[in-house]
Amino acid sequence: MTHGPGAPAAAHPGRPEAAVPPSPGIWNIANMLTMLRLLLVPVFVTLLFADGGHDPKWRSVAWATFAVAMITDLFDGELARRKGLVTDFGKIADPIADKAIMGAALIGLSVLGDLPWWITVVILARELGITLMRFWVIRFGVIPASRGGKLKTLTQGIAVGMYVLELTGWLATARAVLMGLAVLLTIGTALDYIGQALRMRREGLAARTGR
User: Fold this and answer.
1) Which of 17, 95, 185, 192 is most buried (most C-beta within 10 Å)?
2) Between residues 96 and 50, the one the model is more confident about
């Protein structure tokens, strides 16, 4: 049976009404930047400890490697969101890469005696604790990164980068002050996130029980 010019076209069984955009593959620019950051971790550690760990030339090269890793951290997430390249691999690998490069720098600097161990412990404990807490409340919602958290990350990155370099005089004083600020932001944002998590969990439980 034929249809007239004004009749609707027959539906084709099994054919979707609208084309579904294909999911992004793992080999995209955002994920490649994340993988590059992971690959730079052992390179950075090797350079940091080269020739006893206190050679200014090697420390400068280690700083450059650290800087490249931190720069990729600024771009991979933004590219993934803007270009529609968000993948399950990226969601898992990105925070691992962030903590790997920062953890390697903090621990390495403390081993070399350039950074007090208590600072390393405070920062790493905060990062691990907040990550676990996010998983604890994920069934009630996602805790977004706050402006304070982003400022904390930036301050930590600059301060740790300055400790990687062999600095003296007022620059050494400036990096100590900046690291002090980073520690304060680390603790302050942790308390803020804990408050958000407890409130989110309380409201989620109340919604489930109807109270």
Assistant:
1) 185
2) 50
